[in-house]
Design goal:
The complex is a heterodimer of chains A (303) and B (294). Chain A is mostly helical and 303 residues long. Chain A has 14 helices and no strands. In chain A, helix 5 packs across helix 8 and helix 10 runs antiparallel to helix 13. The chains are: A mainly alpha (303), B mainly alpha (294). Chains A and B meet through helix 6, helix 7, helix 8, helix 12 and helix 13 of A and helix 5, helix 8, helix 10 and helix 11 of B.
Chain lengths: 303, 294
């Protein structure tokens, strides 16, 4: 186990370095100057030159890169040009609510979808399956921004039972925080749980084709033991892959919008910071998924 | 030979995908013929702003007094066309890249690392970043979404090529002196086509959703031309006063994307032996259970 973690840790550092370096040069080679973006189009050439110098953007690209890399290694992502704040502060402000939403909805989706998938795979003809299957396709097909607006119309405007906007930290006021989280979590769970149910159900049906369920039944195991005790654990692997690539954190508009805004205003440090966080999130999720694979599937361990 | 009995069997096993295929054809018909009968989508009439459904305007009117039905239909043409273009480009690029990567080991390592790097980014974030670089608008949206979705097809195609290249008939073709490009085009590509077709229908569905999200964010096709996504965005301020305005373009997206998903599943179940076996199994289990219960 420890050498797996070591190898993955090394891969993590290499990936981050590659992504960070690539992004640094792409962003810096883009036409456009953050100084112009900050000062507006009426700025004189002198003002632009002064600000460019103050931001250190008139130095050779390689020495800028060296400086940036040195700071990143020390955990300093620099100051956002647009927000006039350290990048880490800007990221923390935007990431807190986003991460909370992402984790909450992923956990709820898993809790909801595993029993549903097991049930629909075991009872293909039942009434529930006939309702749930189209519902999961609907969950995949519905654009989340539209579902959010429709739910706001129903629960926020017509029924007036839930707040329609805003974020309250769970540390200050828990009931209010929960009521603010319900709608966004429901929207995210709709899409995610649908995908999970579909993946897990398909993989369970695939396992039904194998011979071991038949053997187990022949040996007198009850259907419950066959489905829950044998099929389900074996079918979990593809589900893990989907959970791994779920990009939840980044689908939530706050983060995507921040990236767009920072690219548009040529806020170099912020673009690089966001990219690094996305890459870090992706690599960490994959790391966890790989470790879970090893825990669930003995075949992976042997390899 | 597979005859009409085969199709009947497919229908009997699972009629649902074929019903959805019918829905899709119907939507396409309405979108292509409907605008001929509806009033022009950009006719402005300030006197009838934000009215609900009526005899003259079946789905009501928007904030400029434009007919929502005719805008939903026109937007459908724009969105479905854009999605089709993205799918076509992505399929073409993905096929070429995947075939080359799967067949020429030397190209494989470099090309697939690049594809992996693109796949490492969440699709919508990558699309947003690319549009930010390219400038918003229809052309950059198509380019961005093609770049986002081509790697998915490249990966599938590479896998298919690798497994097909190991087949006996490829070795036979090679030993009978066929050139490599000829083998690729005449033996590998046709056999990978079903997989490609299934993937393409899902990519189309995803492209429609991404197009909706991008134009909702104001990064796609710009305002006077309607798309389903930018109609939802335009309707946002009238959420409370005129909810119908926001409902219909969204429903259109859901309908088409659901149909494409069902269609992709249906085609896959027909063409891929493994999922056909799965379907037969569910069919049998369902039948047994129904008999067992009665």
């Amino acid at each position: 186990m420890s050498h797996v973690i070591f190898r993955r840790g090394r891969d993590l550092v290499i990936t981050l370095l590659l992504v960070g370096t690539l992004m640094f040069f792409v962003v810096h080679l883009l036409p456009g100057n953050p100084a112009v973006a900050m000062l507006g189009s009426y700025a004189t050439e002198d003002q632009v030159r002064q600000l460019t110098h103050a931001l250190g953007l008139d130095q050779p690209l390689l020495s800028q890169y060296g400086l940036w890399l040195g700071h990143v290694v020390q955990g300093n992502l620099g100051d956002s040009i647009g927000f006039q704040q350290p990048v880490t502060t800007v990221l923390a402000e935007h990431l807190g609510p986003t991460a909370l939403l992402a984790v909450a909805s992923t956990v709820i989706s898993l809790v909801v979808s595993v029993p549903l998938a097991a049930y629909t795979a075991a009872r293909p003809g039942s009434w529930w399956t006939r309702v749930l299957t189209p519902l999961s396709v609907f969950g995949i097909a519905v654009p989340n921004f539209w579902l959010a607006l429709v739910l706001i119309i129903v629960f926020g405007v017509a029924l007036r039972v839930l707040p329609i906007a805003g974020y309250v930290s769970p540390l200050t006021d828990l009931p209010s925080a929960v009521s603010h989280l319900i709608l966004p979590v429901v929207v995210l769970v709709a899409g995610q749980a649908a995908l999970f149910v579909r993946t897990l159900r398909e993989s369970m049906l695939g396992e039904l084709l194998a011979l071991y369920p038949r053997t187990a039944r022949a040996k007198g195991a009850s259907e419950r033991v066959v489905i829950l005790g044998q099929l389900l654990p074996n079918a979990l692997i593809p589900l893990l892959t989907v959970v791994g690539i779920v990009e939840n954190v980044f689908v939530i508009p706050g983060f995507g919008a921040l990236l767009f805004q920072s690219i548009n205003s040529r806020d170099y440090p912020l673009v690089e910071g966001i990219t690094l966080v996305i890459a870090l999130g992706y690599v960490l999720i994959n790391l966890v998924v790989d470790l879970l694979y090893t825990a669930i599937d003995p075949r992976v361990r042997i390899r | 030979m597979r005859g009409s009995g085969w199709l009947q069997g497919a229908w009997r096993r699972d009629p649902v995908p074929w019903c959805w295929a019918g829905v899709l054809v119907l939507v396409l018909l309405v979108i292509s013929i409907g605008p001929l009968f509806a009033q022009p989508p950009s006719d402005i009439d300030p006197l009838i702003r934000l009215r609900g459904p009526s005899g003259a305007h079946w789905l009501g009117t928007d904030e400029y007094g434009r007919d929502i039905l005719s805008r939903v239909l026109t937007a459908g043409g724009v969105s479905l066309g854009l999605g089709a273009l993205v799918t076509a480009i992505a399929v073409l690029a993905g096929t070429v890249i995947g075939l080359c990567a799967g067949f020429f080991p030397r190209a494989d390592a470099i090309v697939m690392r690049l594809m992996d790097a693109l796949l490492a980014f969440p699709p919508l974030v990558l699309a947003i970043a690319l549009v930010a670089f390219l400038g918003s608008g229809a052309t950059s949206e198509v380019i961005a979404l093609s770049i986002v979705y081509a790697p998915f097809l490249a990966r599938t195609m590479r896998g298919a090529t690798l497994s097909l290249s190991a087949r006996g008939y490829v070795a036979a073709a090679r030993s009978s002196g066929l050139s490599e490009p000829r083998i690729l085009l005449a033996h590998v590509l046709p056999n990978a086509a079903p997989t490609l077709l299934v993937q393409a229908s899902f990519i189309y569905a995803f492209a429609l959703l991404s197009d909706a999200a991008l134009s909702f964010l104001g990064l796609g096709v710009s305002a006077p031309t309607p798309t389903w996504g930018n109609m939802v965005d335009e309707a946002r301020p009238y959420l409370v006063t005129e909810p119908g305005f926001i409902i219909f373009p969204g429903l259109a997206i859901v309908l088409v994307v659901m149909a494409l998903n069902y269609l992709g599943d249906g085609v896959r179940n027909l063409l891929e032996p493994r999922s056909r076996a799965m379907l037969d199994l569910t069919h049998l289990r369902r039948r047994d259970l129904i008999r067992g219960e009665s």
